[in-house]
Structure formats: C-alpha cells, structure tokens
Amino acid sequence: MGSKSRRRKQRGQPKQGPTTSWNGAISIALAQLGFAAQSGVAKRVADALIQRGILAAEGPFIEKNIPLCDLIHTAWDMRLANKSHEPDQQYRMLLSHHPRSAQALERLQRDGRHRIDIKALLQEASMPSAPLSCKPPYPPIVGQQAFAPILNIAAGRHWDHLFPNPQLGARQLEAYLGPTNSGKTYQALQALKALKPGEHGVYLAPLRLLAIEVCEELRSQGVAVSLVTGEERDLDPQARVVCSTIEMLDSDQHYAVAVIDEMQMVADEQRGWAWTQALFELSADRLFVLGSPAVEPLLTAFAKITGDTLTVHHTKRFTQLAMTPQAISPKALKPGSIFVVFSRNSVIRWGEYFRQSGHSVAQIYGAMPPEVRREEARRFRAGEAAILVATDAVAMGLNLPAHTVVIGEGEKYNGRISAAVPKPLIRQIAGRAGRYGHHDVGHAAGADAAIHRQIQKALNKTDSAINFPTIFAAPTRTWIDRAMDAAPDIGVHDLLVAWQKTLKGSDWFTCMDLTETLDKAHILDTLAGSHRLSMAERLQILTAPVDVRAGQMQHFRRMVAAILEQRPHHSPACSGTRAQTEELESDYKHLSLYCWFHYRYPQFFPEIHRATAERERCVQQLIVQIRQGLKRHCRSCGKALPAQSAYGICERCYRSQRE
C-alpha cells in the first residue's frame, strides 16, 4: 500500500468513489430516522448540507465536526421537541432529554454551537419525504393554477415589458472594454470630474471596496462625493457625485453621467441581475460601461433594440503581461509577489509557511472585512509586507502593484464541487501583475508545472461572448406591480417561483439564482404579520446581506421579527479581545446586517453608533491578529493547528472521536 493510501486510511479519509459518497451515508442515516427510502432524497439532503457549508464536500465529517448521523439525530430531536428557538433554552432541553444529540452539539465550536439552524435545514432538505408525523416547516408551494394569473399578465418575457424606461433611445453609451490595468476607469472618472454646475453623476461599483477607492480618488482631486453602500452612508451635502455599490442604484434619479463598472458581471448568476437592472433602468445622458471585451456583443444588441447610441473604445494594458519561462515554487517566491490560493484555510496555511521562511506577509480572503482587506493591501503597497497571500478576492477592487502573481492551486470550490479554476478568473487574477508607473512588465506563473500550463492556456484564450439571453434578471418593479394586481394574496416565496416560471424559455433573460433568496422568503412568509408589509418591502428585505455559512439566518429571522412586531432590536456586540478570528469575522457580518437594517428601518434598529463602533472593534482586533500571524484552530478543542495541516481537527480530537 502506498504512503498516500496509508495516510488516507490512518486519517479516516474516504477514497474517492460512489461507495463512500455522502449519498450513501445520508441514506443510512435517514433510514435510521424513519425517512422514506425515496430516490433522490439523500442527494437533496447532501446538496443542501454542502451548499450551506455544514457538510464538508471532501471529508468524512460535518464541517462543524459532527458525525453525519449525530447531526440528523440532533435535527430530528429538535423537530420532535418543537421547542422555542431561543438557543439557551433549546440547548438546555437537549442536555436534559436528548443525551445523544447533546453530545453531538458539544462537539460544535463552543462559541458557535447555536449559529446553525439545523432544524429548518434538515426539514427543508428532506421535503417531501419526511415521516407523516412531521409537518413541513414551510407552507407548501402553490400549484400551477395559482400562477396562471401571473404568467398571463402583459409584463411577461419581453424586455420592454419588464423595463419600460422612457430614457431608452435617448442615451449615449460609451463602452471602454479591455483587460485589467488598461485605464478604463480613468476615462470614466474624467467625465465625472467634468460635470457642469447643476449636473449629477453616479459611479456604480461591483464591490464596496471599489466604491470607497473611487470615492477617495475623486475627493483627493477636489470633487465633492457621497458614498452609499448597503451597510454605510458617508454623505456630503455639497456632493453632486455618488459612489455606490451597484445594488444601491437609485433608478428614479436622473444623471448627466453614469458609470457601470465590471459590466461582465451581468453574467454572474447570483449578482448579475444588478448589472441588467442598471443597464436598462439608468436614466442618464451619458452612460459609461466598463468591462471585458466579452460584453461587446451584448452592448451592440442592446443598442440595436433600444435605440441608444453606442460608441466602443478598446483599451490595451499599459504594461505587458508575460508568463515566466517556468513555474515558480513557493520557496522561490520573491518580495513584491502575490501568491493566490482559493480558500481561507489555504491563505492561513501558506501565510504561516512564508513567515517561517523569513518573509513578512499580508493576507486577504473573502470573509475578511473590507476595512481589513484595505489595511492588508496598504501594508503590501507600502512594503511593510513582502508577500501577499490571497484568494481571488484580489481579482478586482484593490490597488495592488505586484510585479509577479503566482497561482498556487488549480482547483476552486464552486459551491457544489471542487473544479478547475475558470479561465476568465485566471485571466483576471493574472492581470493583477504589473502596474502602470511601477513595472514595465507583469509576470504570471503557476506554483507547479501543471498549474503553469493551466494559466498559459487560459491566457491564450479570450472570454466567451456575453449576450441575450444569458444575462440574469431579478423581478422588476413593473412585473411585480402587475403580478400583485393579478394575484394580490400571493406570498413572496410563490412570487419568486412565478418569476422563475415567467423567464423559463425567455429570449432575453435568465432567472437569477434564487436558492438563498427562497430560503429567506420561506422565513419571511412564515413569520406572523409579514402580509402587512408591501411586496416591495418584502423583496427589499430579501436583499439583506445574509451569509448562510456564517449562521446568519437566525439573526435575519430575529431582525425581521422586530420589524413585524414593531419593537426596537439591540445591536449585536463584538466578542472581545480573546475571540478567535472566525468569531470576529462572524461578529462583523452580524453587525453589518444590523447596519443594513438600520438604513431601511431606523426606528427598529436605532443603535447605529454602537453597531458602527462594535464593528470597528472587530476590524482593529482582526488587524492585530493578522499581524501576529493568523492561526487555524481545531474545530473541536480550539487548539492551534500546525501550519501545513490539511485538516480542520487536531490529531487528539480525531482519535477521541474514533474511539
């Protein structure tokens, strides 16, 4: 037996193949609980658990270190008990009456044991195959006949029924299309700076970080600018320019100049709807569209159907991008380089490796608060950190003058499986190498020969063309109004399902991914009094930034309940100086969610100053921890793990669980 097979056997890691798949394990666990052995049930449960980050796609343990059967027993006990959703009461009940489930809960990270809504997850995932004694957690979806009035309304699949903008046909579209580091943003900002008295402008960014960066750039040149994102407001009474995240677009405002950045995001199934909405709904005299050359077919077709005037400018990189002759191994990485991997654990593991090799290190990953990312980027730019270890969170939105970008992994988890890193993402990441005014040439490389070849192939390709109907759309205001006229008593969940059906087979749009939105819609529909909110209010609430992996669904439920019950909701707090990194990041997200609700319902979320201060505490503590060196900790006992450990649990806890 080879060394790799021995290690796999010693660690309990399953071999790849159908005999050790999650489906089989879940089928056995469900059978023990009395679930009907119906085809497809196990797969639905596995998909739901993996998608929510509770089930590890590649290992034999639940992400929070609960054996699968224990997790389902826990959910089953919680369902039968049907007790209060208050965490402390629920946990005490389990300790007293369900020792097997309590034992499973004890193996959760101590400070995070209540952050997983296991009951709702398992109930939803197992529908419709639950035992007859168990009521489904959400009202059943209405039948096809209930959708008929909506599906037959005039505002159907055609673009002009969905986006009746009277400004269409009168706008001047100016597209600046090219790779990264080619000056696209510069051209648009010149137009914003040249606004005449009485004119207004808007810059729509894909990320809060980029909105802040552009806001600060304009302010440094004497332009009065307001910043508006989902979780913050920095308003200047004199401002005639707004820098905003694209979801915050005010389509009722007319602008002399509007800028849509990273237009290729229109093809993103989670967020692409916001770019579609901006393209169709913006009321502007001049509309600057910045992005990849892949969107040119879409813009050409768009101008043809709407009558807008289109001028396309193709931009080229200011600095040359070249592949290194061969791969660059981590031990050969030089100061001023970015090392890119595709998970938080990998960032922490490699960061520790480079520190032990004598380098100062900055680290960036997606779950990191934007303020911390900015500070880490500043340290790298200033030379305080020799090497930046990051995920693809650096692909856009940060000024990072690196002479070399090395990609250290060839696969990325896409929410379902680990697959080859998409070629457009490779091109976006590699394009961060070299910065005008800093380097004449930027270099890209892989950490080994296979990844190096993968990058070379990606750079030799161009992005696939984006056009109708592969762009994504969310329910539009016109469609919602007419749908409510046709079916005034419909719930928000069923309205979204009707939208999915409306766009099925459309020649113009594809329905956005509604998976997590439908989860939130289920919660909203089942809360008492939700019908008192207008449909527009309910749909707005569904856009709240809820991170399912961070266990925010319960926080979301409580905040929505506060609105419906018309009572104040207190701000969460930062866990404190002894909190681990994951707790601080989770606290930051909870506080950001509170801030989001404050800006929509200030009367029920009044503690904005406290929330902002607590969020800043999280940021400062995270900055301190990163400078001291991020550590990964055992999910069971909290002990620091070795730098290059590929597991989320220490050897001692692993052995104790196997006994």
Description of the structure:
- This protein has an 8-stranded mixed beta sheet with strand order 4-3-5-2-6-7-1-8, sandwiched between helices. Strands 9-16-13-10-12-11 form a 6-stranded parallel beta sheet, sandwiched between helices. It has a two-stranded antiparallel sheet with strand order 14-15.
- The longest helix has 21 residues, at 608-628.
- The protein is α/β, with parallel strands linked by helices.
- Helix 4 (68-81) packs across helix 7 (118-126).
- Among the domains are: 18-137, no CATH class; 164-314, Rossmann fold (3-Layer(aba) Sandwich); 320-459, Rossmann fold (3-Layer(aba) Sandwich), CATH 3.40.50.300; 633-659, no CATH class.
Output the keywords:
disordered N terminus; Rossmann fold; 6-stranded parallel β-sheet; single chain; about 650 residues
Topology:
Elements: H1 3-11, H2 22-32, H3 41-51, H4 68-81, H5 87-97, H6 99-106, H7 118-126, H8 144-151, H9 159-162, E1 172-177, H10 184-193, E2 201-205, H11 208-220, E3 225-228, E4 233-234, E5 241-245, E6 254-260, H12 272-281, E7 283-291, H13 296-306, E8 309-314, E9 320-323, E10 337-340, H14 344-356, E11 361-364, H15 370-381, E12 387-390, E13 404-407, E14 411-413, E15 418-420, H16 423-430, E16 441-446, H17 449-459, E17 472-473, H18 477-486, H19 492-503, E18 510-511, H20 515-526, H21 535-541, H22 553-565, H23 581-598, H24 608-628, H25 651-658
Parallel strand pairs: 1-7, 1-8, 2-5, 2-6, 3-5, 6-7, 9-16, 10-12, 10-13, 11-12, 13-16, 17-18
Antiparallel strand pairs: 3-4, 14-15
Helix pairs in contact: 2-3, 2-4, 3-7, 4-6, 4-7, 5-6, 15-24, 16-17, 19-20, 23-24
Domain Helicase C-terminal: 327-476
Organism: Acidithiobacillus thiooxidans ATCC 19377
Keywords: ATP-binding, Helicase, Hydrolase, Nucleotide-binding
